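[step 3/7] fold_predict: job queued, chain A
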Amino acid sequence: MTIISKSPKVSKNRRNSAHPLQRLLNYGSQYRQQIWQATLFSIINTILDLAPPWLIGIAVDILVERQNSVFARLGVKDVFWQFLLLSLITIIIWILESASEYAYSTLWRNLAQNIQHNLRLDAYNHVQELDSAYFEESSTGGLMSILNDDINQLEDFLNYVANEILQITTSVIILTCGAFWILPSSITFATLLPMPFILWGSFIYQKRLEERYAEVRERVGFLNSRLANNLSGITTIKSFTAEAYESARFAGESEAYRKSNSKAIKLSAAFNPLIRMLILVGFTALLFWGGLATYNGQISIGSYSVLLVLVQRLLWPLVTLGEIFDKYQRSMASTNRVLNLLDTPIKITAGDKFLPVDRVRGEIDFKQVTFAYQDREPVIKRLSLHIPAGKTIAIVGSTGSGKSTLVKLLLRLYDISSGAIAIDGINIQKLNLGDLRRSIGLVSQDVFLFHGTIAENIAYGTFNATDEQIIAAAKIAEADDFIMRLPQAYETIVGERGQKLSGGQRQRLAIARAVLKNPPILILDEATSAVDNETEAAIQRSLERITVNRTTIAIAHRLSTIRNADCIYVMEYGELVESGTHEQLLEKSGIYAALWNVQSGMK
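[step 4/7] structure written:
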């Protein structure tokens, strides 16, 4: 069977019409002084770098003209002293050129590192502020590509391209002025004839290259997304013997990236040969007409030799414009992607009311709440629910009924479409986000552990916790026994996403983390759904201890785990259809009773 992998279409959208270079300069405005300093030293270095041809011309002038040379006209008649003075000037220029090169190189490189560092931090912090809907529409690999690869692309521009553009521009201005000063106008115009064509061609070239490199950077994002997705799901790939299938899909993404690069390279590679032909016209014009002018005595031999070297120094660096524009467009494509990410609006904004955790009672109200995910039908419909402070309520229902969505709304991972949610009578949209989320502890069925030690994972979110507090929390969560049996106990590395631990062990660490946080509101979202009966019993014992006098919302499929709740709510299609205690709901012989009978019959 032939597997055809279709790559995602490349987006043509651009959030900001401003040129990416202007956007980058606006972002780096705090480094304006450093940019000007680096620019100044680049220009000074270029001027000094153009001095050797003039020095050679002066040396030729001394040998040919002797008593009529430039230095002789300044009062230094003796040839020995003329060459000595020329040597001293050469030494000074070389020293200053080396110093200016060190200065601009240090300034540009430090500027690159500073802007990259700040841009990386700003982009990462901005991503953390985005709502959950953004992450559902974006791929992890694509974001990694922007936060890492695209930001690193700026180093080439700031380390190399910016300085090269400045030096070439400075060279063109100085040497053009020098040519008009020394040569007859007709010869100067013939020599510089290719320049307008080179500049016009460069502009057209870089505009065409811009689109191709924008596509290349997007293809990198797709490729990284595929790679990150496959590495995260490697166990599933192996279990379904899908290695060949995924290899073909990855090859498809890689091929699309290769083709995008090939189109850019094809255009990039054609630039240098065309520029060389134009340069040949200018250099040949100087060689021929300038030689005749020197022979006829219109200009001196020294001036002719200087111009030959200077024009060569002017025209041949233009050959590197292809490489410069190549790097420039790569960098600008990356700049657009990074700054577009920074321009992504933050939809969930923090309120201005502060509610310290120690003042939270835990009373929760959902008032006529309606919510729909983007471009979908409402999953919560005019739902009203009152949860008294310190009470335990349970929410049950079929998959997709909206149970977990309520948790996301309470944490403001999403904002509701209409209605209101309040904690202790305060609308959560008016609360400071940090205070809101610090007051809520979440134990989810999908436990996420960070690569690090067990102690670090338990203390996550309570970073100032002592070892004694960490151990006490683990004991309450009945995790201490298995932790102490591990090779390094609390210093054992859990691996990425806690892959070195079993599901039950990860769940107990999540409970220990919530215990240590000690929030006034606790949410248990299918906390025992993926564990065996023995582990479930241990987790239930720990949950019974930590839910005392704490507002608790338990979402569960296993009804046996929530039968002792103060009130149980049954959700169907985004609405509450039943409520009451376990006994009251059984007496109603409704949806809850049917679910209980099914689960009881399975035991």
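[step 5/7] annotate
The chain has 22 helices and ten strands.
Residues 243-295 form the longest helix (53 residues).
exit 0
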